[in-house]
Amino acid sequence: MNRKLFNVDKKRRLSLLGLDKRATLAIQNHFRLTNYQMLVLSWFKGLWTGILLSLVFHYFIIH
């Protein structure tokens, strides 16, 4: 797998999108994940976040 972390456009270094891309590529390169595995990882992260938020809301509504 190629190391793509340092090939990010230099003009957008400080933008939020550039920071997000660099963080994503760093995680992908560190754990040697494919694009599909990153997609599945983000889906599970969203699912887990939704479950946690629903439990927190449920706790505050019931108690």
Q: How would you sum up the major sheet?
A: none
Poorly predicted ranges (pLDDT <50, ≥5 residues)? Answer: none
The radius of gyration computed from the alpha-carbon positions, rounded to a whole number of angstroms, is 17 Å
pLDDT averaged over residues: 86
What portion of the residues fall into strands of 2 or more residues? under 5%
Question: What is the overall number of helices?
Answer: 2
The share of residues in helices is 55-70%
Q: Tally the structural domains.
A: 2
Structural class: mainly alpha
General form = elongated
Number of strands: 0
Distance between the termini: 51 Å
In sequence order, what are the helices and strands, one letter per element? HH
Q: How would you explain this protein's 3D organization?
A:
There is one protein chain. The protein has 63 residues and is mainly alpha-helical. It has helices at residues 16-31, 35-62. The mean pLDDT is 86.
Search tags:
single chain, 63 residues, mainly alpha, 2 domains, 2 helices
